[in-house]
Amino acid sequence: MLLTAASAIFINAEKRRLFEVVPDVVKKAWKGWEVEVLILASLTLQIVLVLFGKRRQCVTRLWIRMTLWSVYLLADWVAIVALGVISQNTLDK
User: What keywords were assigned to this record (predicted)?
Assistant: First the structure.
């Protein structure tokens, strides 16, 4: 089972080398706006949490709880990635 998964990963890696998934223009744009996009995404997720956090207490539907939980985890991840990018950019300079 493990050998099958490892060989599938290797074969997929070989296929990915044959064509470029993300064009160079997009890579350059992402490199230039990476920190700004991550900070705006983090701010947006935090605003969603503030606006809908109280609603979770009033409405006991499962989809609201699951959505807010997912947004909470995503906001945490985006903030950590943004801090990592900022620290990496600081070390590179």
Answer: Membrane, Transmembrane, Transmembrane helix
What pLDDT shows up at residue 77?
94
Residue 78 vs residues 65, 82, 89, 91, 92: alpha-carbon distances, Å: 20, 6, 16, 20, 21
DSSP state of 55: H
What integer pLDDT is reported at residue 72 of this predicted model?
93
Q: Would you state the structure tokens that stand for residue 37, as one six-digit string? A: 């996009």
Assigned token pair, 85: 């990018």
Q: Give the pair of three-digit tokens for residue 51.
A: 């606006």
pLDDT(43) > 60: yes
Q: What total of structural domains would you count in the chain?
A: 1
* Residues 40, 44: Cα–Cα separation, whole Å: 6
49 vs 9, higher pLDDT? 49
Residue 54 lies in a domain: yes
* Whether pLDDT at 7 is above 60: no
Does some domain include residue 34? yes
